[in-house]
């Protein structure tokens, strides 16, 4: 199981450049777009950029400044990336319950047990309205009830909008799980059987090279800890490598869009949108808005559906919608 | 002095009878079984319980809330009745204080049992953040424990001095009681200090006792959950706690009266009065119950509707009606008639009230968790329900046995009925002037 090969790897950097997702480049691009003089020769390599106004321009590579790394030397896990506000948009019109997001998420985070960080719900508002599939993950609320109730500051919120868990701090009281209205937190009820340990350690070594510590909130699930809480973390370790979160790249239908609210841009790897325009045009909304938790995940209503609800039913088994990652036990059984 | 000697004779702690030994042995056995199960829980994790990601709290937390409720009685009997000048409650004050101390100790332990990482308990103090209701609970429970211990210990000082003299033939016992009495000699100054301290403690414990139970209610009410999202929760919990505590006092005083032959001190009149008090408290609690269920049931919003339907008609219905009718309405009816307030019926009612109170806590904790905002989907069938596993039960019984063992041991070594105070009230207190 070599995760890197099986997972299509779309470079966040590429998309990032295209989307102007990275502030520095965005600014540079704007400058470049304005200053384009006729001086550059036709041979010079050019690159497509999106200006903050939303138009694509082609500029010579030499005009683009290299951005400093997202995470510079004094990056603090608890403070997060400066000047970011990560958001996700989920287009319900495209979801056909393919569940590739779940598989990718479970696999890359070594999630064991019967639960998952990402769930796809079969929803139907009322008997007369049409059913639809609704993926949910941690909403990374701006007013997170889970953070309010945590007695030891194990769950915390960073300046970039991510709500993360410090598994070395968590005392396992599960109050945050009771408080989360989206039921997205999961508990390690027993010692997690996280597949081939060597693989986890390989990954961890790689992480350590990049300055991650063991059990870093920055890379939840690697490895999970008995008696503590886990949940979706928006893959900061991927953002850090300038790639998109695993669910975004894994979805064959392009349901998930990830981006930065300050940049006002979201992308699913293939398409890029202005966040504000997208939400306005497609009537984006958030779940349980009335509770005042201010989630960072937006949904586009399941109108004008590209896919039939029935198609997803083939993948639906009420009690095991969660595909387990490989563990020594169940690989032996095969 | 003759009367006083008789009094001391009657009230001084007595050695265990055979029955007492069997009882203590039984409690210790239950506790050992619970410790073994807890060892498994430490080793394998909370997987040995039936709790899962949806029913993430279960019988442990219900049990915790129950203990907190029971402990409230200490302040009811000693503080409220004492301050209101209800002298009839004097023989019951020590019993209630003992119950309060035992319950609050076990409440603290129960919380640790429920933790996924008990090894990190100290983080609560080193990394505690005041914004979390759990920290409020930690603060208020420890305060309550300290005040309760003082309120148990202070009135014991003169009694210990009496016992020191009483056991003068038994060297070790006399020595211990002497030490514990902190050289109490009954001088005027000591008496003044003593009365003043008890008064201050009695006043102090009331807000703390209300605080502890309100905070425990807030633990639930501060979350976004249908069924817990209620402004009624604080008073509702306090009323329920008084009911449970009064029930516990009645039950235990009945046993002690039987086992220690205290018919002259804990009289039928006491049962009559406790019966009346219990009716009053049950009525009050019933009133809060109506508030708690009628308002959301009238509106039946989607989320509350799912929750209430399960309680009224669904899988929790049987338990729900058993608790409301059996644990509240029947006791009210029985205790309203004078015949129902004879010791035995009062005892039976007290016991079912305590049992009802225990299950009521279970009904507050479990069903709400199983009715979240987003439907429970994609998890194994067994996660949709919760019923405690055998190990969970054993550990829970272990904590209950622990509370009873603390009570048993205290009852073995301290006078169940305050000797000094009783003597004072009977006008036969020794007037010692040094
Ligand atoms: S969705 Fe739940 S776990 Fe995530 S931030 Fe909001 S309250 Fe916390
Ligand atoms: S379970 Fe852990 S993260 Fe959740 S509230 Fe308790 S200590 Fe905080």
Automatic annotation (TrEMBL), chain A:
Keyword Iron-sulfur: yes
Start and end residues of each 4Fe-4S ferredoxin-type domain: 129-160, 161-190
Domain of life: Bacteria
Hydrolase keyword on record: no
Keywords: 4Fe-4S, Iron, Iron-sulfur, Metal-binding
A Pfam family matched in the record: Fer4_11
One MF annotation (Gene Ontology) recorded for this entry: 4 iron, 4 sulfur cluster binding
Protein name (record): 4Fe-4S dicluster domain-containing protein
Taxonomy of the source species: Bacteria, Pseudomonadati, Bacteroidota, Flavobacteriia, Flavobacteriales
Automatic annotation (TrEMBL), chain B:
InterPro entries: NrfD-like
An annotated GO cellular component: plasma membrane
Transmembrane segments: 21-42, 54-83, 95-113, 133-156, 200-221, 233-256, 277-296, 316-336, 343-359, 393-414
UniProt entry tagged with the keyword Nucleotide-binding: no
Compartmental location: Cell membrane
Keywords assigned: Cell membrane, Membrane, Transmembrane, Transmembrane helix
Membrane topology: Multi-pass membrane protein
UniProt keyword annotation of Transmembrane present: yes
Annotated family: Belongs to the NrfD family.
Protein name, as recorded: Polysulfide reductase
Lineage: Bacteria, Pseudomonadati, Bacteroidota, Flavobacteriia, Flavobacteriales
């Amino acid at each position: 199981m070599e995760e890197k090969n099986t997972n299509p790897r779309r470079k966040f950097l590429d998309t990032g450049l295209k989307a102007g997702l990275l502030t520095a480049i965005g600014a540079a691009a704007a400058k470049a777009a304005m200053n384009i003089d006729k001086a550059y020769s036709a041979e010079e390599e050019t690159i497509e950029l999106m200006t903050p106004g939303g138009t694509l321009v082609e500029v010579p590579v030499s005009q683009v400044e290299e951005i400093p790394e997202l995470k510079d030397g004094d990056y603090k896990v608890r403070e997060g990336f400066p000047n970011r506000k990560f958001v996700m948009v989920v287009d319900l019109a495209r979801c056909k319950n393919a569940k590739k997001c779940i598989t990718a998420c479970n696999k890359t985070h070594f999630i064991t047990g019967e639960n998952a960080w990402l769930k796809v719900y079969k929803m139907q508002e009322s008997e007369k309205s049409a059913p639809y599939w609704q993926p949910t993950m941690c909403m990374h609320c701006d007013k997170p009830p889970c953070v309010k109730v945590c007695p030891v500051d194990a769950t915390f919120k960073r300046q970039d909008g991510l709500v993360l868990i410090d598994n070395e701090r968590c005392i396992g009281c599960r109050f945050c799980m009771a408080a989360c209205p989206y039921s997205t937190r999961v508990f390690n009820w027993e010692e997690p059987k996280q597949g081939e340990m060597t693989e986890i350690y390989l990954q961890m070594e790689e992480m350590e090279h990049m300055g991650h510590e063991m059990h870093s909130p920055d890379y939840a699930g690697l490895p999970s800890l008995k008696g503590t809480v886990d949940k979706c973390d928006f893959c900061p370790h991927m953002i850090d490598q300038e790639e998109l979160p695993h669910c975004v790249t894994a979805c064959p239908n392009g349901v998930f869009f990830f981006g930065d609210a300050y940049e006002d841009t979201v992308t699913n790897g293939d398409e890029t949108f202005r966040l504000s325009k997208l939400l306005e045009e497609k009537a984006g909304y958030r779940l349980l808005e009335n509770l005042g938790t201010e989630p960072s995940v937006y949904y586009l209503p399941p109108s004008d559906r590209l896919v039939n609800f029935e198609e997803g039913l083939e993948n639906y088994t009420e009690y095991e919608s969660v595909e387990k990652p490989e563990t020594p036990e169940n690989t032996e059984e095969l | 002095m003759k009367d006083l000697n008789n009094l001391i004779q009657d009230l001084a702690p007595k050695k265990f009878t055979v029955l007492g030994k069997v009882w203590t042995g039984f409690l210790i056995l239950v506790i050992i079984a619970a410790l073994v199960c807890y060892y498994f829980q430490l080793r394998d994790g909370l997987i040995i319980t039936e709790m899962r990601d949806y029913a993430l709290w279960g019988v442990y937390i219900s049990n915790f809330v129950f203990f907190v409720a029971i402990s409230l009685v200490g302040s009811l009997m000693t503080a409220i009745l004492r301050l209101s000048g209800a002298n009839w409650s004097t023989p019951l004050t020590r019993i209630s204080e003992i119950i309060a101390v035992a319950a609050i100790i076990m409440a603290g332990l129960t919380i640790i049992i429920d933790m996924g990482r008990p090894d990190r308990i100290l983080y609560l103090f080193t990394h505690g953040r005041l914004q979390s209701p759990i920290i409020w609970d930690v603060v208020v429970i420890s305060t309550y424990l300290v005040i309760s211990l003082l309120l148990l210990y202070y009135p014991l000082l003169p009694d210990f001095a009496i016992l020191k003299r009483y056991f003068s033939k038994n060297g070790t016992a006399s020595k211990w009681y002497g030490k514990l009495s902190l050289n109490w000699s009954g001088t005027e100054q000591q008496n003044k200090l003593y009365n003043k301290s008890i008064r201050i403690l009695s006043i102090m414990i009331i807000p703390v006792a209300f605080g502890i139970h309100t905070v425990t209610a807030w633990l639930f009410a501060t979350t976004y959950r249908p069924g817990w999202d209620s402004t009624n929760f604080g008073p509702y919990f306090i009323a329920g706690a008084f009911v449970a505590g009064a029930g516990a006092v009645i039950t235990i005083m009945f046993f002690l009266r039987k086992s220690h032959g205290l018919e002259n001190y804990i009289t039928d009149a006491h049962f009559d009065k406790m019966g009346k008090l219990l009716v009053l408290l049950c009525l009050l609690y019933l009133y809060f119950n109506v508030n708690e269920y009628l308002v959301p049931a009238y509106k039946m919003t989607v989320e509350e509707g799912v929750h209430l339907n399960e309680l009224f008609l669904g899988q929790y219905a049987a338990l729900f009606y058993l608790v409301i009718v059996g644990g509240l309405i029947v006791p009210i009816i029985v205790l309203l008639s004078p015949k129902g307030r004879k010791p035995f019926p009062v005892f039976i009612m007290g016991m079912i009230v305590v049992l009802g109170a225990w299950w009521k806590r279970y009904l507050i904790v479990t069903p709400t968790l199983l009715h979240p905002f987003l439907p429970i989907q994609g998890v194994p069938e067994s996660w949709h329900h919760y019923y405690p596993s055998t190990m969970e039960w054993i550990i829970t019984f272990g904590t209950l046995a622990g509370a009873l063992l603390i009570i048993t041991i205290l009852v073995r070594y301290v006078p169940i009925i305050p000797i000094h105070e009783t003597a004072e009230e009977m006008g036969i207190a020794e007037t010692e002037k040094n």
